[in-house]
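Chapter review: from sequence to fold.
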Amino acid sequence: MPTGRFPAPPTPETLHLRDAAWHERSIAQALDHWDGRTDLWVFGYGSLVWRPEFEYLEARLAQIHGYHRALCMWSRVNRGTPEHPGLVFSLDHGGLCRGRAYRIAADHVPQTMRALWAREMPSGSYIPRWLPCKTPNGPLSALVFTMDRSDPSYVPGLSIEQILGIVRTSRGRYGPCSEYVLQTAQALEAAGILDPELDAIARALQAPSSETL
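The token string follows.
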């Protein structure tokens, strides 16, 4: 694991997986404003761009302000283990982020939210927020999973070299961390979404090991 001036990975003892009851309370809080009859939007910026795993009525390119995509969260389940965590994308404060917004039919909202919470919130490291999004078809409000900066999984300020060292050597229940990063980069490129920092990481992951950035 690379060393440097960033927080050490959480120890296995600090991994507290959330149970179904916690998920239900968190979902109810996130949907407190919902009337039960209106379609809802979900914003994807990482694996939700290429593997949403839920039914949707419509997908749009979308942009949010005030947050940017970053590999700033330790993954101790999906793309790593408690003993050897990987990194996954979250939304950290500042800048902007381009991704995809999905419209969920009202009658599919409850089961879709449960599936999203099981996938995205195994340890509750995200803060679900409703944020305004700009799209080619007009503005909308979407559910967005943003980084909880008080969570032990938050790891800011990694250099590209540190990120590469972690990503290349980690894997979790969904497979290698490197696969996750490359698939995200490829999906964004296919959608016409520019992310220069992610592109640089992807190029380095695909380069022969003797090459440097």
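Two observations follow directly from the output. The first strand starts at residue 40 and ends at 44. The helical segments are 20-30, 47-50, 109-120, 160-167, 177-190, 196-206.
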